[in-house]
Design brief:
The complex is a heterodimer of chains A (about 250) and B (about 280). By secondary structure, chain A is of the alpha/beta class. Chain A contains seven helices and eleven strands. Chain A has helices spanning about 20-35, 45-55, 70-80, 100-105, 115-125, 130-135, 225-240; strands at about 15, 35-40, 60, 85-90, 110, 145-150, 160-165, 165-170, 180-190, 195-205, 215-225. In chain A, strand 7 and strand 8 (about 165-170) form a beta hairpin. Chain B has a five-stranded parallel β-sheet, sandwiched between helices. The chains are: A alpha/beta (about 250), B alpha/beta (about 280). The interface between A and B is medium-sized, with 23 and 30 residues.
Chain lengths: ~250, ~280
């Protein structure tokens, strides 16, 4: 049985990090009205000071700040064994590739401008155990991916998959795999039982040889078949990968 | 850093570090006071503007040809971005970004020049449109004269300030690129500004400004009451006004600079000893 979520938002402590004071205060006020406790920091150093003093459930951090950026904060937190989920706020004039940030420990993104209500929904979801989030089928998928990789070989243009804390890199380019699309997937390796089966949202698609990374897409898990969910949760508890969605392998050199 | 309201998508001001021309996205007091419930309609527009910026950014870095008129039309008509905000909040940061990419050897000098020409084209268009709107194309009365110090070929800042001053209703004229000291003094004699702004891009140009000041001292009748020195060099922490007696340093941010000139123009306008009235 999945662990209970935080039923009362008063138990939820959110650390909000943004150098833009007006925006930070406005969001903090809104989240506070929704019942959570909000701790504020205006930069990486002050955020680390808060984390040293207080228990925090979810970190919400801006990326672009003077001196050190939000991803530096996540790197420092993760190095110190901090495993709080983290929402990264980007300008909308995105300065960093999503695959890079998901790979470096971010669990979710919001492009500015956004509405605090949507942010708070996401924060609440992230505060719950992953297994609980993966237990509800979101409905029909817009695309299906069924792949079997015998002995790790390339199959029908698919180079494989890599699993992270909250999703996977899928080395497959297909027209119907677009950002925001809910896909169903069933992935098997050799004769072993199905490795991964469920549904997920495509968060990014990459076909950018100059990045030096293999083409493919990043999929965030929305739903996993119960036995697979149990196996994966157990495995993730042991391995504690940094990446929420791995950015995938480097391009094979010809 | 340039402060940008991510909700109304307008330039808000600047914040430290002032020699970093990248954007920091926040919320302006106007949007903050309206409350998020009233801002829901702006979120979709914000996404479209972010896509527009991403497209500009990509084209700037890859050297794709950008069309000035089409860009302004798309920004103003399709997305409702004020042309001043387009320049200050989008083109200007990209200009510095492309310059940085060139310095790092990541783009060719041709790409850097091409984007600079595009930015200047945007400024030119904005200047023409503003002139039509305000009738300030060729202010013959005393106002603000902005010049670049001899050797300063970085004209974007002066041109942007010129537009900001005009946008604020202050009669302003900008001359560029850098002029020799005697030509600057000739321009002062010709336009009789109440305030003079001199842009310096490198500390090595300071002696040029010193010579301007010396020449103006010799002709007190035309010397503007307010002389402001600023520019890229003044945003460096190493900047000093030593050797530039009697001048005001330009504030680090655009809005404060506009206010400084406004005060200078107003104060001298009330002074019966101003060159224009004397």
């Amino acid at each position: 049985m999945a662990a209970p979520c935080k039923a009362l938002d008063t138990e939820l402590v959110v650390l909000l990090v943004d150098d833009e004071r007006d925006l930070r205060e406005a969001i903090a006020h809104d989240i506070h009205l929704r019942g959570a406790t909000v701790l504020e920091a205006d930069g990486v150093d002050s955020a680390l000071a808060v984390l040293a003093e207080r228990k925090v459930d979810v970190i919400v951090t801006d990326v672009r700040m003077p001196k050190r950026n939000g991803l530096d904060l996540l790197a420092t937190v993760r190095r110190g064994q901090g495993d709080q989920p983290a929402v990264v706020l980007m300008s909308g004039f995105a300065e960093i590739p999503l695959w890079d940030a998901y790979d470096r420990g971010a669990d979710a993104f919001f492009g500015k401008p956004f509405l605090p209500e949507a942010l708070f929904d996401r924060v609440r979801r992230l505060a719950r155990p992953s297994a609980q989030n993966w237990s509800v089928d979101p409905g029909p998928a817009a695309a299906e991916v069924n792949l079997t990789f015998p002995n790790g070989e390339v199959v029908a243009g698919a180079t494989g998959f890599t699993i992270g804390r909250g999703g996977m890199f899928l080395g497959l380019m297909r027209r119907d795999l677009r950002v925001g699309v809910l896909i169903g997937f069933k992935l098997t390796v050799g004769d072993a039982p199905t490795a991964l089966q469920g549904k997920g949202l495509v968060r990014w698609v990459r076909n950018l040889p100059e990045s030096g990374l293999a083409p493919g897409c990043g999929v965030e898990f929305s739903f996993l078949e119960p036995d697979i969910c149990a196996r994966l949760s157990e495995r993730l508890a042991k391995t504690r990968p940094l990446a929420f969605i791995p950015k995938g392998p480097k391009l094979a050199t010809p | 850093m340039i402060r940008w309201c991510s909700y109304c998508q307008e330039f808000v001001g600047e914040t430290a570090p002032f020699d970093d021309f990248s954007l920091t996205h926040g919320i302006c007091p106007g949007c903050a006071s309206r409350g998020f419930a009233a801002l829901a309609g702006l979120v979709e527009r914000g996404t479209q503007i972010a896509e527009f910026y991403a497209s500009l950014r990509k084209q700037a870095a890859t050297g794709e040809l950008l069309d000035v008129d089409q860009t302004i039309h798309e920004a103003e008509v399709d997305l409702g971005i004020r042309s001043f905000d387009l320049f200050v909040g989008m083109i200007q940061p990209l200009l510095y970004e492309v310059g940085k990419l060139w310095a790092e050897g990541k783009v060719t000098v041709a790409i850097e020049h091409q984007f600079t020409a595009f930015a200047e084209g945007i400024l030119e268009q904005m200047s023409k449109r503003m002139a039509t709107k305000t009738g300030l194309e060729a202010p013959t009365h005393a106002g603000v004269l902005l010049v670049c110090a001899g050797g300063n070929y970085h004209t974007v800042g002066v041109r942007a300030l010129n537009l900001a001053l005009r946008d604020a209703g202050i009669a302003s004229r900008a001359l560029f690129p850098g002029l020799p000291p005697r030509d600057i003094v000739d321009a002062v004699r010709r336009f009789r500004p109440r305030a003079l702004g001199v842009s310096v891009s490198l500390p090595t140009q300071v002696p040029e400004v010193q010579l301007v000041l010396e020449l103006l001292r010799q002709e007190p009748i035309i010397r503007p009451e307010l002389i402001v020195v600023g520019g890229v060099a003044s945003k460096s922490p190493d900047w000093t006004l030593d050797g530039l007696l009697g001048v005001e340093p330009a504030p680090n941010d655009l809005q404060s600079t506009v206010e400084l000139f406004r005060r200078g123009v107003c104060a001298s306008g009330e002074n019966s000893q101003t060159p224009s009235s004397g």
